[in-house]
Amino acid sequence: MTTPAGPPRSGPAQPVFIELSTTATRMKLILGTALMLLFGGFAAYGALSGHIDGDNPVAGRIISGCFALLFLGLGIPMLISMPTMLRSRSFVVDSQGIQYQDRKGRGWACTWPEFDQLRVETAYRPSRTGGRGRVRLIMKPSDAGFGQRHPSMSRFAGHFGGKAGEYGMPLGPDVSIAEQLDSAIRGAGVGCYGGLVDTGMVIGPGGYV
């Protein structure tokens, strides 16, 4: 489901700052990662040791192995992404463009005319703890020279929900970030903005990032 961007409005007098590494985001990431690795570890132990109750221990080990692959397949990518998600990061949005600030030197800044379209996507992934959100910023450049002007964004090209010719940037599990970013871009009067898009429920290792 897409929330229409609506007609452009005049840009805000002051830039809008959006902090990505909020306390809520950090806690969700740490708790979710710990639970996935814990469940995966128990399942792997059962599959390898054979200490499983039931009439058919072979089938039990196979099932435990499948659960281990599932949970570890979710938890390991989350663990790898943790240093990125936990460090201080923020967006600055104004009538001229959008800037991503990152203390690790991976920041970037783009003006609105550099985009043919951009949108904010959210998704929901169910889990044993009730589920988590997923937020992504999808950007489609307006010209072929975009990648050369922004080499730090090359890792987003065609990834994280971005189709061919698009750049997808993962923003973590806090859906309130999507709402803040949506409001800021709308307020900046961006004509290329495609709105806030709810992509529904996702399953699998890619469900977080």
UniProtKB/TrEMBL annotation:
Q: Which domain of life is it from?
A: Bacteria
Keyword Transmembrane, does the record have it?
yes
Q: Which residues cross the membrane?
A: 29-52, 58-80
Which key words tag this protein in UniProt? Answer: Membrane, Transmembrane, Transmembrane helix
What's the protein here called? Uncharacterized protein
Organism source for this protein? Microlunatus endophyticus
